[in-house]
Design goal:
alpha+beta; four-stranded antiparallel β-sheet; 2 helices; 12 strands; 47% strand; elongated
Length: 144
């Protein structure tokens, strides 16, 4: 028996997973018992697909990389150093910024991180909004 605690949309769920027999799991969520039926066939189907995908990925990746370079010729994107949630945006499009100026506050790993400008310039685009989740490497702000 395994116990987990999940917080989904601000609601706390205590989940206990009991016996799993074949494809039937006995689960308790906040004191309510459920019988959960899991599919068997989709688990077997994905196994062969990853073997075929690596062959296609190397061919697709080089084609995408050259296309991205010309688009960013005179501009540079300030990238997210970590996956997280945008707490605040300190600049607007059209603002002049100096190197080291705070552009965005990013919450990552339960800490607030200041994302600063990497060069002097003008903000030409803000690619995120307050409350949005971002992945590592996402272009947050474009500075020209």
């Amino acid at each position: 028996m395994k116990e987990y605690k999940y917080k989904i949309n601000g609601n706390l769920y205590n989940v206990t997973i009991g016996d799993i027999e074949d494809n039937i799991a006995h689960v308790e969520v906040n004191g309510t018992h459920y019988t959960v039926e899991m599919e068997k066939k989709p688990k077997a189907a994905p196994a062969p697909k990853p073997v075929a995908r690596p062959v296609a990925k190397p061919a697709a990746a080089p084609a995408a990389a050259p296309a991205a370079k010309p688009a960013a010729a005179g501009k540079s994107g300030v990238k997210s150093p970590l996956p997280g949630v945008i707490l605040d945006i300190k600049v607007k499009e059209g603002d002049e910024v100096k190197k080291g100026q705070t552009l965005i506050i990013l919450e990552a790993m339960k800490m607030e991180n200041s994302i600063n400008a990497d060069k002097d310039g003008k903000v030409t685009a803000i690619n995120v909004s307050k409350g949005e989740s971002v992945l590592e490497g996402t272009d947050l702000v474009i500075i020209e």
